[in-house]
Amino acid sequence: MSLPTDPQKLQPSLPEGWNLCVHPRGWIYFHNPTLKLLTDQDIYDPELRSQLLGHAASLKSSEWEEGMELMLHVNLSGDIDFILAINHNHCVASQSPSNITGEAVQNLGHNLYQLNRYRRLYWNHLCTHPNHVPCPPRAVSDASDALIWFYTDSMLSGARSDVPFNKTECDELMKLVKEMELPCNTHSAAKTLFLSWLLREVCSFRNSQNYGCYTKKEADFRASNRSGFVPALYDRTPSSIFLPLLHVIINVLFFGLPWTYLAHVKSSFQYHGRFVGLQVRWKQYIERLVREYSHFLLVTDSGQKVNRSSFGYYGNARRAGNLYLLKSGCNDIFLSIFGERHSRRLFYVETPGQYAAN
């Protein structure tokens, strides 16, 4: 016996008072405007639907002020497994309905940190349930304001900027935010989803920065402590007996090149709040090593070709002269590498800060 292929035959009729909403990713959730109730669970199950309605009635969600609604899940025993109260007028959400009423939100004006946490809960909720309500009017302006600041901070702080989006990403996101204001996107669920995701990331970043909690001096002090740098753990200097010998070996025999490579490795591994920047610096360092190794092989091969012809002669005096020529050729190779490395450090400017240091 073959099963029917028509989705209408596979799905029973929707219970009265409920609306079915389809997320842009394809999953469904259910909304009851009368009870101001929202759920991801299967309301086609009569027992489950009855439990949801009972909890909504006990919470009196239908009597909540305009713009508020209830997100509810129940477990197998029928008890509340998850509850979230949402206020679309103020773009806040909390597990306690009394925390997000209009009066409560007005009283939160001085507590920006807690208000930002409620905002993050709201945008996270709207990111997964964008269909049943229009996009909040403040979403575009809030997103635009945050992106402008991220772009500005990337310009001011450079590689040390810890904002979640760099300048290139801010440019791309700003173009999309401007397109969200077009009339064709007025009722777009994807628009609500995009702006909710963006503002959720903004709120997450601000929570990590203790947004609105400290003065500039206190914030700078906490930022310096957050780096977690403990000199005692990182300054692994050799013994004072071997340190002069080590300096002689590195500076005389190797012309100080290991110090340069060590500085490059340290700078490549410095983390300034964005893994993308760390990846780019490490990729550039690998490319530099490959390029310089290729130059080294080229110079070495040229020196070997020059000296190889002289080994065909016989005689101890001639061999001693050839060995001297070989040693001189190797010295020339090391001197050329040292000169190239030293001139690059002095004259190749990567950043304005390095230019000022030189």
From TrEMBL:
Q: Keyword set for this entry?
A: Membrane, Transmembrane, Transmembrane helix
Keyword Membrane included in the entry's annotation: yes
Keyword Transmembrane assigned to the entry: answer is: yes
Give the transmembrane region(s): 241-262
Q: What superkingdom heads the lineage? A: Eukaryota
- The name on file for this protein is Uncharacterized protein
**Lineage, broadest ranks:** Eukaryota, Fungi, Dikarya, Basidiomycota, Agaricomycotina
